[in-house]
Amino acid sequence: MNQVNMLRSLALIEAVSLLVLLFIAMPMKYQWGMPQAVSMVGMVHGILFLLFVFFANYVTQRQAWSEKFLMLMVVCSMVPFATFFIDQRLKQYVPS
Question: What is the residue-wise DSSP string for 53-83?
Answer without folding.
Answer: HHHHHHHHHHHT--HHHHHHHHHHHHSTTHH
